[in-house]
Amino acid sequence: MALGVAAVAxxxxxxxxxxxxxxxxISVLATIAVVLVAAVAAGxxxxxxxxxxxARGPLELRRHLAEEPGTAVxxxxxxxxxxxxxxxxxxxxxxxxxxxxxxxxxxxxxxAHWAGRSAIFALWLALGAAxxxxxxxxx
Length: 139
What we know:
By secondary structure, this protein is an all-alpha fold. It has seven helices and no strands.
């Protein structure tokens, strides 16, 4: 509970920083360092797989996709969505028109305000924590 309150407070404080200030950059770097150290500490000896089975993971994923058509359709949909987003960004960037904004321009509009910066930082923090710590399972 205290960790969640601290994360919300950090996101609110980060949202109040000027976008390109030294304090904002230092706090983001410190957050990355803390999450990486926490991931190493929490994951030591608790990985679900050893190195060899983990390295063979993509081969098993191909078999799983072949056996589960619903999973394959989901993977195709997400791939198409990602490629469409990349294509939109490339097209918008190449045309250099303001009526075709890039994602960085849209994020810039959102993060130009305190609430937007706080919300994006909180989402980034939650995603980082989930990726770094959420997949660790005890033996």
